[in-house]
Give the backbone structure.
Amino acid sequence: MPSGKGGYPTNAMARLEKQLTGFTFIELLVVMGLMAILALFISGSLSNLINISQQTSRQQLVKNEGDHIIEVINRMAQSSRPLDCLDNSYLTILNPDGGTTRFLIDGTNIASRSADFGENIETSTKQIPLNDSQVKVSNFKLDCSHFSRYTWGSWVTLKFTLTDTLSSHSPVSYSFESVINFPNH
């Protein structure tokens, strides 16, 4: 058996030298190709995760806005007397302080218009939207068929849909429905 430096066989020396020279160009290309495929997979997954996160936060915004509108109207109705209701238009209540509040649809908002004692609700300029500008109201329905100013146990049904205005390609919409009771009259 031929031997080289240090008594190692020549075949072993050739293998040792080959191992010390590094990777071949083909091996480097294969590794870079695999890394590129892995990077594409990771970036696609990350992009989907970001889109899902944004969609979820928009859904939560729309849901919170609708719940807020219903909570405000219900809370005010609990301590007020009903005054006037017109199907799909408005609900007017008499507040404990003698002032009036009207809930109505105003373009793409559900608004609250207030008038002090003795002031005309029709001409009052104290109107604020109950929903944020990032959502718009549609399909507003107010059912006044069980409304009465004079009998105990009056209620109205409020229905509306909120849609976020932040995204035009995949808007988020929620439909809300609530029965507004007037227990204190």
